[in-house]
Amino acid sequence: MKKIILTTLSLFIGAIMAYAGADIKFESTTHDFGSFSEKSPKVTCTFKFTNTGDGPLVIHQAIATCGCTVPLYPKEPIRPGESGEIKVTYNGAGKFPGRFQKTITLRTNAKSEIVRLVVKGDMTPAIGAE
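Now predict its structure.
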């Protein structure tokens, strides 16, 4: 009888532990830089998020669609209820002016393991550029 109770209790605790976990919620997953000049081709934004789960949140990886977009993310775990930021810099130096859209893919331990952030804008030609 004791074995049955202990086994049942172990399975119940295991199920609770498996359900418990991190979850990530962003204020916004898209940022539009609008128009900016080719003379100042580097623009930066910040994506704010909160761990809405009940376990520590770990961002394992942040990968941009091209080398002109660089994400900086926290390497340490974010505790439940705490917030963090992902800073994304787009550098259009050497790129053709015009509209762009870049995606940053985050791999986390959250319930939704993959999250995509998008930055977009319009780099206008530098007038009188030589």
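Residues 92 and 130 are 17 Å apart (CA to CA).
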